[in-house]
Amino acid sequence: MTETPLYEGKAKKIFPTGQADQYLVVYKDDATAFNGAKKGQIESKGQLNNAISSIFFELLAKNGIKSHFIRQVDANSMLVKKVAIIPLEVVTRNIAAGSLSKRLGWPEGRELPKPIVEFYYKDDALGDPLINNQHIAALGLVTPLELEFLEREALAINEVLKAHLLSRNVKLVDFKLEFGRVGHEILLADEISPDTCRFWDAQTNQKLDKDRFRQDLGQVTEAYQEIFARLTRQATNFQAKVKVRLKPGVLDPQGEAILRSLNSLGYKSFQSIRVGKLIELVLSGENQAEVESLVAKIADELLANPNMEKFNVAVEPLK
Ligand SMILES: Nc1ncnc2c1ncn2[C@@H]1O[C@H](COP(=O)(O)OP(=O)(O)OP(=O)(O)O)[C@@H](O)[C@H]1O
Ligand SMILES: [Mg+2]
Prior knowledge:
5-stranded antiparallel β-sheet, elongated, alpha+beta, 32% helix, Mth169, Chain: A, binds adenosine-5'-triphosphate, 8 helices, binds magnesium ion, 2 domains
């Protein structure tokens, strides 16, 4: 790595490497918003965005979506394939927010009937304006076929990211992608991070992205850390056993019937028989205490009849 970057952007520096077709991308803590009008720093953002982007590029690769990502190098940097960036910001939206809410008067948080893909012309001097397919053709940025590819790719990426994030209790509201050319191929490039996506907590809609910086909501680093934590949380498989028994004093016809049969077969020493049930469950969770309380909750709601039955729960990691 040489000392001077080839290019320094608002969020990242691009360095040449020993390989002519590879770049080292170094993520910075600098933050900007409103096309550079608001500037600041978000502590640890560089390493968080580098780690989060690496996780997303790896997830996408597993799902058949190629990108510039080669590997994470260290806390703040990743090795990528050098591409010629196509000057289009490809934005996909699931829920109204930001400029879409402003443009159409749709309240922030409105679910869209289906995902919407938008294209913005990547030009800081013009303020990255929204453009349509005809502007794109007139500008000669991509061919109609390539544009179709970008839209399809954005929607496919949306499905992968949306499902994965939801399993981590995060709603994917919208996100911006950049693509670039290498030879005849178009690859997903740049970054996928809380700087370039809107992430909301799935239960509370709490914002976990750069809107906390844009809107001075505070706890900005904490939000980025929370996204990283949710993406890296390891789930373990547990086995839970729920024993359900009749409460003392509740009539047990099944137990009575077994007792009568034993007596009639000549087994006279049995005094009392109570029949219960054993329910075995396998589930994933973060830790034993969390799994125990979840299983107790569903046992109370569903597995046992609280008027007549009591239950106990035993949980252990699945071997
Ligand atoms: N694989 C890649 N090859 C070449 N350039 C890339 C690659 N991935 C990202 N870039 C470009 O690196 C630059 C630095 O990123 P950064 O996010 O800091 O830029 P920026 O300040 O947002 O500015 P802008 O995107 O307007 O140039 C961006 O121009 C981005 O498009
Ligand atoms: Mg950028």
